[in-house]
Amino acid sequence: MASANTPAGDNELGDFLRSRRAVLDPQRAGFPDDGRLRRVPGLRREELAQLAHVSIDYVVRLEQGRTRRVSRPVLDALADALQLAPDERAYLFTLADVAPAAPARRPGRPEVAPELRQLLDTMDNVPAMVLHRGMDVLAWNPAAAALLTDFGALAPAERNLIRLTFLDADFRALYADWPRAARECVAVLRMETGRTPHDPALAALVGELSVCDPDFRTWWAGHQVRGPRRLTKTYVHPVAGSLTLDVQQFTVDTHPEQFLVAYTAPPDSPSHEALRFLLQWSATPATARDPHTPHQRRTGAGPA
Questions:
Q1: Tell me, which fold does domain 12-96 have in CATH?
Q2: What is the average pLDDT value for the chain, to the nearest integer?
Q3: What angle separates helix 200-212 from helix 178-195, to the nearest 10 degrees?
Q4: Taking the complete model, does pTM exceed 0.85, yes or no?
């Protein structure tokens, strides 16, 4: 039963604590095999309580959603006991905070931060986009459209990288390792919904993906979280072939909910040459392209 502090059906804090408790190895946490049958994997509640120096009843109340008012020292103790990674620790603190009331309506699409727009406009030879929380695409340059998809052909509500990763077959096919990329998307979305639990757009996205994709449902239930960091992704592009690109993120203090993402490759690397070829090809008028051998110049092969 939810308390006055926890909306009915909203027990993210309890779900997260249980999921992290379940993946811990009791022996590695300092609890040797005592011969007792473990009915569930991971730590028992009493073991977590012992490690965090709190009562078993308090752990039960947290996991059942009967409270999420937790002091910082107790949160630190729980995070240490659960051996949380930095992103997971930040997510735990977000869930335990009392969030403001939900807005009555979804706000309109935000204006792109001028500083990010200026950066985007100068990046002619680097695929780049301005993203909003939840991976909504607010703006993009022609290089990003050439690499990923024609965002201008999509309805604004469909311009979301996570949604495209799961629900757009062509976008999905770009990833050399789709499961890894998709799981990263789920972890990012889980982190963002923890920060803004009453955002109706994020709730709608989670709902849509949960209905449409069984992999999303499974990974969402795992409560993995991930914050912004430098990534390397490999794409299999129908024109340029294989490209392994560094994905870098830039923010501005005045618009912390927005960030610019740029895709780059080391100079003189095969991926740098493939990216340069793609941008040259995309800048060529469609009537002047050879549709049968778009990648022949680099590889001598037919379409990738």
A1: 434 Repressor (Amino-terminal Domain) (1.10.260)
A2: 83
A3: 150
A4: no
